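We emphasize that the prediction below concerns an isolated chain of 265 residues; any contacts that depend on oligomerization or on bound cofactors are therefore not represented. The input was used exactly as deposited, without trimming of termini.
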Amino acid sequence: MPRSVTVTYRVLSTPAETARAAAQLFLDAAVKSAAARGIARIAISGGTTPKSMFALLADPAGPFLKQVPWDKIELYWVDERCVPPDNAESNYRMTREALLSKVPLPAERVHRMEGELAPEVAAARYESIIRNSFKLEGAETPTFDLVLLGMGDDGHTASLFPHTEALNEMSHIVVPNHVPQKDTWRITLTWPVINQGREVAFLIEGGGKAQVLHDVFLGPYQPETYPSQIIRPASGRLTLLLDAAAASKLPAPAESDSSGTLELR
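Result of the prediction step, given as a token string:
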């Protein structure tokens, strides 16, 4: 049985406001984690909303660049396409161009997935990187301070696609995943690792996501069809940052703070 989780969703008026809320979430998590543990381990995703969030974090005229404790951050990826780091499809390339080339984050604290390698090799190497940087022993799993996720219009998240092998993986931290729908391979964190995050959030925008968002959070539990349903953090809390178009088929939030809650049982 899936664990019970309280989903807090915040509805922002525009994609730009959603990106700003995501940047604030990144900042708050980094400051809180650095203060508590001396380090902030954050796993990020690709996509439009993270790209806009990165631009805000890196903006020298904005409020975030000087507040983020860049020297305390360890940056990881939730998933990656099996392409070289300079390929237009690379999540790493997008992050490098929008964020890493513009902020004082030490290179040794940036842990990319090596999409140019064979999928099995890349996954094994990334699991080793995580084990070493978190100083894990035996069967220990990592606890990221913040995991930022997106959601595809098919209900996938990370590179956990409908009816793919990675949905059944519970013993590894990172796995290669063949995606027949796209005739490609991806590298992804496994869902138990994502669920171990201290804070886990979806960043979702656009009317094209409205129906799948409704089906994932208000429909029957069918994680093979809607892999995003398997994201139920051990903390019992899940955050959604949504623009108004994406949230249009969820219950209207309270007008006072544009936020609502759902209880997943």
